[in-house]
Amino acid sequence: MASLTLRAAALAAIALVRVGVRATTIELPPCLDPFQPFIYSGCYADTGNPHALSLRSQLDQQDMTIEKCVSVCKGNGFRYAGLEYYGVCYCGNTVNGQQIDEEQCNYPCTGNSSQVCGGTDIISVYQDPTFLPVDEVTVADYDHLGCWTDDSEYGRALAYPQDQLDGSTLTTEKCLQACRDGGYPFAGTEFGGK
Ligand SMILES: *[C@@H]1O[C@H](CO)[C@@H](O)[C@H](O)[C@H]1NC(C)=O
Fold this sequence. Notes:
Bound molecules: 2-acetamido-2-deoxy-beta-D-glucopyranose
Number of helices: 3
Helix content: 10-25%
Strand order of the largest sheet: 1-7-3-4-2
Oligomer: single chain
Structural class: alpha+beta
Order of helices and strands: HEEHEEEEEH
Strand content: 15-25%
Largest sheet: 5 strands, antiparallel
Shape: globular
Number of strands: 7
């Protein structure tokens, strides 16, 4: 995940100076439709390498609430939403960190001081209850959804390349297994071996 985050950051930096270069991951808007509320999952350490949750949202951290962070993670199809350091919002499909004592999550949120937004290198994590628990998901649970275009002005159809897989021996099953292990609800193959 660290290398993916770095790659996304590098691509974003290039995009600033070279017009026309596309970033792989484009943050979609928050979900505006009503949806089943996320459930609090616990207080976790975030060592930052890799981050506990993979996507750092570009939402304004000076005016953050649990509702805002959860909505952007829902809008981007993530399993988890997390709030850290008064109002930095993260989204992810796995939590890469140790659960720690509840009292260590004690910073008020910038947009609603009655809510808790983690701590320093500590993140308050919420979970979308509409996802099956990761342990119960198998490759057989993925349905074929058809053939889609990729890499438009809206970014990649699926944002996280699984570059740890060897393209020359790729199979559908290997792709599904990697995406299942990463907690991703969608998987896709293209270009003969990506
Ligand atoms: C602030 O958060 C508390 C606790 O979640 C909630 O009850 C309250 O409605 C929120 N206030 C606003 C203005 O949204």
